[in-house]
């Protein structure tokens, strides 16, 4: 089958394409999925380079933590899925030992983190709903519950997760300020629903947020950037505001802070959540996915897929993400109708 493999941790050039990788056999509790699309996620770049904070997979490995496709075989003990079912699924735990989605076929455990795709939902949207959709869902419902009338600040609002968060916050009734690293991303962020967009490569986002909120500050900050935005972000929060720090796309984690700093800045809350702690069961995954599919069907969520890469262009896809030129969600288009 066609697949990307990493034999050595390193740069994008370590993503090696082959069309002679052995197709996996599903175990008794697994299904075999012919992937239509696999998602590109920032975490993939960290896993590829060996820099993920949750640990590294054993070499060699097939990267990729989300995909959608069609079941082509089921193990003897699988009763909840059948050949022909359209499914979306998410691999990879905090220890990141599992990957396997940059491939034509994936053998996957039928008991967790896999859902059937409703007929009305496209394979692309279903795939894009996995990591970034499920993350956006728990970040806006559980890490901090966004309410009508809230003001929120979303960093990297032109990125895949940033766009997802924007739409979910707007859906919940918030006013959204987005930051972006370029004028073109800021334009996209506005088109995606941000009420205001700040180019934080050129403007002081703290001053801008204070001005926009008439010095009151925002109720919540969603920060997936890390060290470069975290400390100044605390100064954009209203009293009793919440900092949701969920990533370090800038490459560095923030320095530790004293808890008293949160009191000094207005009795702030700080949470540093991780997706897998909000998907503790198949039921929890199903509830979140059902919500997201429902939002798409009612027209309040439209995940913008900006780029489709063939699998053999995986290195270029990683370069584009690392050079910050990907706007919105990017997918690998895998199923071209051929079989292995
Ligand atoms: N905690 C969780 O549960 C969880 C789950 C999924 C993802 N995440 C994290 O969420 C963040 C966003 O993930 P994603 O997959 O959706 O990526 P993404 O949003 O598509 O891209 C990341 C964004 O970060 C910004 N950025 C700022 N400095 C950067 C740098 N030095 N290099 C690259 N990008 C930079 C870029 O926007 P600008 O160019 O506009 O600045 C880029 O659009 C990542 O940190 C990821 O690890 C966390």
What does this structure look like?
Strands 3, 4, 5, 6, 7, 14 and 15 form a seven-stranded mixed sheet that branches. Strands 10-9-8-11-12-13 form a six-stranded parallel sheet, sandwiched between helices. Strand 8, helix 3 and strand 9 form a beta-alpha-beta unit. With about 350 residues, the chain is α/β, with parallel strands linked by helices. The chain has two domains: about 190 residues, Medium-chain alcohol dehydrogenases, catalytic domain (Quinone Oxidoreductase, Chain A, domain 1), CATH 3.90.180.10; about 120 residues, 3-Layer(aba) Sandwich (Rossmann fold), CATH 3.40.50.720. It is built from nine helices and 15 strands. It binds NADP nicotinamide-adenine-dinucleotide phosphate. NADP nicotinamide-adenine-dinucleotide phosphate binds next to helix 1, helix 2 and helix 3.
Write a concise keyword list for the protein shown above.
single chain, 340 residues, alpha/beta, Quinone Oxidoreductase, Chain A, domain 1, Rossmann fold, 2 domains, 7-stranded mixed sheet, 6-stranded parallel sheet, 15 strands, 29% helix, globular, binds NADP nicotinamide-adenine-dinucleotide phosphate, oxidoreductase, EC 1.6.5.5, NADPH:quinone reductase, QOR-like, mRNA 3'-UTR AU-rich region binding
